[in-house]
TrEMBL record:
GO terms for cellular component: endoplasmic reticulum. This is GB1/RHD3-type G domain-containing protein. The keyword rRNA processing does not apply. Belongs to the TRAFAC class dynamin-like GTPase superfamily. GB1/RHD3 GTPase family. It comes from Punica granatum (Pomegranate). Residues 703-723 have a biased composition (Low complexity). GO terms for biological process: endoplasmic reticulum membrane fusion. Pfam families: RHD3_GTPase, Sey1_3HB. InterPro entries: G_GB1_RHD3_dom (IPR030386), P-loop_NTPase (IPR027417), RHD3/Sey1 (IPR008803), Sey1/RHD3-like_3HB (IPR046758). Residues 1-210 form the GB1/RHD3-type G domain. Residues 687-737 are annotated as: Disordered. Keywords: Coiled coil, Endoplasmic reticulum, GTP-binding, Hydrolase, Membrane, Nucleotide-binding, Transmembrane, Transmembrane helix.
């Protein structure tokens, strides 16, 4: 800065080896207009660090006049806002003068300084041109005194009324000889001054204590914004401007680094590899790429405002981590699924090797949870603080679910094994004991059940000891096993009871046709048929009483006595009294067969709602019958035929033992019964030819003995009457039987 035509451009060209336009000395300042217009910028040649040089338009020029000082103030404010060092060119003969050319310039500099809310500390170098013989030591105090007077008289805001000049400026004074008269000396002095600009920003240098530095990458944008604010004639808030420049530039740098990361080939390879499986060293590789990207940002944004730089770095880091997080989650998923598969294989291998279930589950779980943690550590990205605990918990749940499923399958397998053993141990012996059917049958069955159950429980407890089941669970499973053993016996007994009629017939035939030595009985006519029959009937009744109820609880009952009174002693005089006594203590004998049949026969009417429905829905059919009485005769005849067939087939008796046996029996008897009915109808239509009554043979005759002696006769009659009271009843096919 300096007055017009004071040699500013010449000084800059010699000092920084620039090429600013200079005034032609032969034509003079009075002939030509101002040489430098506006603000010119150049790079200092051969000076480190890189230094930008600005050549400002001269002050107090006649071209702008006395009143047009706006541009002078604007350019001065711009210079103070962007520069670290300001060279103020002034004539030596102006020092000490009240109306010297440098006074308005200094006033302008100090006035615009007040328009900066937080001024930057600037180095002011007063270059005294065309130095006379007066030594610099004599000139410098006078110049500093003039500068201090100007500073004191400049209006200041309240915050800076007592602020000394040194707070805003470092003042230096340099004197140079006349360039026209002592050119060589001038060049030597300029060269000496040039040396001070090398490493000028180092501590102790010309700009060593500068503040509010704008990085070179933001200088262009900063300068444009500063000039825009100055042109709008606004006060320049340098701190806010510094933040604004830092914000814009840091955002640009962050966007550039994010774009470079997304285009990074190594990142694309990792991203593609993660889709198909686990990537070894995922965390290390990705962290290196992220570090490189963030380091590039730091290196470019290091000179900007720290708060802005840190904020934008954090934002960039968040964007990068948000971009790579899906890949990280995929890696965790691969680690979890792989760990589960390896756990299953190791667990199955340990079980197959004979290791206890709980021990194998505990050891394998501990081992593979540690391996999962190690792999997660390898996959962790340094810059992220992502929590892997949720994935770890899910892995733990998967492992526990697999262990629970295997435990359930193994326990089920062990349980089924022991159930099969119980079935095998009880089925055959129970069937054999029931075949014997005597007073010791149920005590033997109970003893067998207890022995086999205890054996199975002992073996089961030993088999599941490796599962480390809780006491409650163990008791529940043992109780289930005991219940199963009891249920197996009950099921077997019920199954065998379904064949009780066949067993009774077989026992009756065996005892009736064979003697005490199990030899076929030879009928001589001297045998006591009544006694043999009664013995056989009693044995069959014994078998029925054994199978009539399940006696696993060792409770006393009167079933055998009830059956004996009801079936064997039905004709004795004490039957009614005995039945009433038994019926009071035994639910099975609470009613006689006749009473039960009578009770059921009295219940022949359908429910009332069914009667109403039949009346309403069958009204048309009822009217048809009234109009055609012939239908009534047909229906009546049909009813008689169906009733006769029902009685002859004994339908209710056949279905007493179940639906399927009843259907099979009726299908075999249906056709012979129909033929027999037709035959009886034909015989009833004929007139009897003789009035001689039929004769019954004597019970003790040989014909009767031979008739009873044949096994086929016994078998045939046995099917129609299981318990004949004597030989006559046994061989008879009369209506009474």
């Amino acid at each position: 800065m300096g007055p017009q035509s004071s040699g500013k451009s010449t000084l800059l060209n010699h000092l920084f080896r620039t090429n600013f336009r200079e005034m032609d000395a032969y034509r003079g300042r009075h002939v030509l207009s101002q040489t430098t217009k506006g603000v010119w910028l150049a790079i200092a040649a051969g000076i480190e660090p890189l230094t930008l040089v600005m050549d400002l338009e001269g002050t107090d020029g006649r071209e702008r006049g006395e009143d047009d000082t706006a541009f002078e103030k604007q350019s001065a404010l711009f210079a103070l806002a962007v520069s670290d060092i300001v060279l103020i060119n002034m004539w030596c003969h102006d020092i000490g003068r009240e109306q010297a050319a440098n006074k308005p310039l200094l006033k302008t500099v100090f006035q615009v300084m007040m328009r900066l809310f937080s001024p930057r500390k600037t180095t002011l170098i007063f270059v005294i041109r065309d130095k006379t013989r007066t030594p610099l030591e004599a000139l410098e105090p006078v110049l500093r005194e003039d500068i201090q007077k100007i500073w004191d008289n400049v209006p200041k805001p309240p915050a800076h009324k007592e602020t000394p000049l040194s707070e805003f400026f470092n003042v230096e004074v340099v004197a140079l000889s006349s360039y026209e008269e002592k050119e060589e000396q001038f060049k030597e002095q300029v060269a000496s001054l040039r040396e001070r600009f090398f490493h000028s920003i180092a501590p102790g240098g010309l700009a060593g204590d500068r503040r509010g530095v704008v990085p070179a990458s933001g200088f262009s944008f900063s300068a444009q914004q500063i000039w825009k604010v100055i042109k709008e004639n606004k006060d320049l808030d340098l701190p806010a401007h510094k933040v604004m420049v830092a914000t814009v530039r840091c955002e640009e740098i962050a966007d550039e680094k994010f774009s470079s990361f997304t285009a990074n080939e190594e990142w694309h390879q990792i991203e593609e590899a993660v889709q198909s499986g686990l990537v070894p060293g995922f965390g290390r590789k990705l962290s290196a790429i992220l570090n490189s990207c963030l380091a590039g940002y730091e290196s470019e944004a290091i000179y900007f405002d720290e708060r802005v730089r840190t904020s934008k770095r954090k934002h960039l880091e968040e964007k990068l981590l948000q971009l790579v997080q899906p890949a990280f989650q995929l890696v965790l998923g691969h680690i979890r699924s792989g760990t589960v598969e390896h756990f299953k294989q190791a667990f199955d291998k340990a079980l197959n090797a004979g290791e206890a279930f709980s021990s194998a589950a505990r050891d394998c779980t501990r081992l593979y949870m540690v391996r999962f943690d190690e792999k997660c550590t390898d996959a962790v990205v340094e810059q992220a603080n992502w929590d892997t605990s949720k994935v770890r918990e899910k892995l733990k749940r998967d492992i526990e679910a697999h262990i629970a499923a295997v435990r359930e399958a193994k326990l089920s397998e062990v349980t089924k094994t022991f159930e099969m053993k119980i079935n095998e141990a009880l089925s055959g012996p129970v069937e054999a004991l029931l075949d014997e059917a005597n007073d010791e049958t149920w005590p033997a069955i109970r003893k067998l059940l207890q022995r086999e159950t205890e054996s199975a429980v002992s073996g089961f407890s030993s088999a599941v000891s490796g599962f480390e089941l809780g006491e409650e669970t163990m008791e529940k499973m043992i109780s289930h096993l005991r219940d199963y053993a009891r249920g197996a016996v009950e099921a077997k007994v019920k199954h065998e009871a379904g064949k009780v009629l066949s067993r009774m017939k077989d026992r009756f035939e065996t005892l009736f046709n064979r003697d005490a030595d199990s030899m076929p009985r030879v009928w001589t006519g001297k045998e006591d048929i009544r006694a043999i029959t009664k013995t056989a009937r009693s044995a069959s009744l014994k078998l029925l009483s054994v199978m009539a109820a399940v006696r696993l609880d060792n409770e006393v009952d009167n079933i055998e006595k009830s059956l004996s009174l009801a079936l064997l002693d039905s004709k004795s005089g004490s039957t009614v009294t005995d039945r009433s006594i038994i019926s009071q203590g035994d639910p099975l004998a609470s009613s006689t067969w006749e009473e039960e049949a009578a009770r059921r026969s009295n219940n022949w009417l359908p429910p009332p709602w069914a009667i109403v429905a039949m009346v309403v829905l069958g009204f048309n059919e009822f009217m048809t019958l009234l109009r055609n009485p012939l239908y009534l005769g047909v229906i009546f005849v049909g009813y008689l035929i169906i009733k006769a067939v029902w009685v002859q087939l004994d339908v209710s008796g056949e279905f007493r033992h179940g639906a399927l046996p009843g259907i099979l029996s009726l299908s075999n008897k249906f056709l012979p019964t129909i033929m027999n009915l037709l035959k009886k109808l034909a015989e009833a239509g004929q007139v009897p030819q003789t009035n001689d009554p039929p004769r019954n043979p004597a019970p003790g005759s040989k014909s009767f003995a031979s008739r009873v002696g044949t096994s086929s006769s016994v078998s045939s009659t046995g099917s129609s009457a299981v318990f004949p009271e004597d030989a006559t009843e046994y061989s008879s096919t009369s209506k009474e039987d």
